[in-house]
Amino acid sequence: MNNNNMLQEWPETIVRVQSLSDSGLTSIPDRYVKPPNERPSVDGNDNDESTTSQYGASSNDANIPVVDLSGVDSEDGSVRAETLRRVSEACREWGFFQVVNHGVSHELMDRALGVWREFFHLPIETKQLYANSPRTYEGYGSRLGVQKGAILDWSDYYFLHYLPSNLKDYNKWPHLPTNCRKVIEEYGREVVKLGGRLLKVFSVNLGLEEGFLQNAFGGEEIGACLRVNYYPKCPQPELALGLSSHSDPGGMTLLLPDDQVTGLQVRKDASWITVKPAPHAFIVNIGDQIQVLSNAIYKSVEHRVVVNSGKERLSMAFFYNPKSDIPLEPAKELVTPDQPALYTPMTFDEYRLFIRLRGPRGKSQVESLKSPR
């Protein structure tokens, strides 16, 4: 199999979307124009409140659930039970929720967003020192997938590994701003703790042992990586997407959004809901691997990002993933004669390669893995 050969280099010259945006162009290149059925229906100046789905369903009065996570540790049994119930309902009904009072310092969250904002406003020559390749995706990037001629998303990004420790390569982490590496290290440590707390909650809610999902992920040997997304201003936001519709391939995602500029949209039934971020909240979503482990009791949900013409936007997606070489399959406790195992075992490494070759493709990845009935 020659997949590794396919992943050596990008098939075409990389264009930085930020440079396109900064050039003052009034129409976007054809490479960024989405097919009509994928285009968002947005008001060109401000897509904060005027977003409607391509199906015509309005999305400006709904929001994903917001959960006060401090209730998980409450000594009041009814408060704890209600908090667990709210997380369970969010996982089953939405695949997405926001957490407040999550234990991560607000000041650290602000610092993390601040250093990355500074990074993306550095001179292009400095950022180019960290240009990535499809071999690892680590570094400064502007496209996903290696398909030649693909329609591209209106965004740049920075991707880096945080865990396991042997994949952590500080040379791939920006040296500017000067405190960037220190902030990334501290931020990663705190978000990993939060991810561990949430996995316990998910396990209990699924009727499993508290440590079940953590153990299935490899115990202490989980994988974790960070993708910082930068969405420059776009002169034709109604034709483009910052990130195409997809479900996250890993275990769980903890997103620190820009709470001043909306952009994330979550598919709910036939509508696209524009998420309104709560201040200093993390947006948590179920990834494909938890869908597999829970035998689709919890489902990863399609989401995408719209852009706007008036404001840039930055977000930080922290992926809390299984160890890459453990075969994952539905928990035996969740497999019954009425609900047989939907998936055959596959490692996260195998799964991730499948996606890196093709780029974001809605929910087609995880659906294609279902066992033949």
Apparent shape: globular
Strand count: 12
Provide the domain count: 1
Radius of gyration, in angstroms, nearest whole number: 20 Å
Order of helices and strands: HHEHEHHEEHHEEEEEEHEEHH
Count of helix runs: 10
Structural class comes to alpha+beta
Helix content: 25-40%
3D architecture notes:
With 373 residues, the chain is of the alpha+beta class. The chain has a single domain, classed as Sandwich (Jelly Rolls). It is 27% helix and 17% strand. It has 10 helices and 12 strands. Helix 4 (106-120) crosses helix 6 (180-205). It is globular, with a radius of gyration of 20 Å. Mean pLDDT is 89; it is low at 1-5 and 43-60.
Write the layout of secondary structure elements.
Blueprint: H1 3-6, H2 17-22, E1 66-68, H3 77-93, E2 96-100, H4 106-120, H5 124-128, E3 139-141, E4 156-163, H6 180-205, H7 212-216, E5 223-231, E6 243-246, E7 252-256, E8 264-268, E9 271-274, E10 282-286, H8 288-293, E11 303-305, E12 313-321, H9 348-358, H10 364-368
Parallel strand pairs: 1-2
Antiparallel strand pairs: 2-10, 3-4, 4-5, 5-12, 6-11, 7-10, 7-12, 8-9, 8-11
Structure keywords:
about 25% helix; about 375 residues; 10 helices; Jelly Rolls; 4-stranded antiparallel β-sheet; about 15% strand; 8-stranded mixed β-sheet; disordered N terminus; 12 strands; globular; alpha+beta
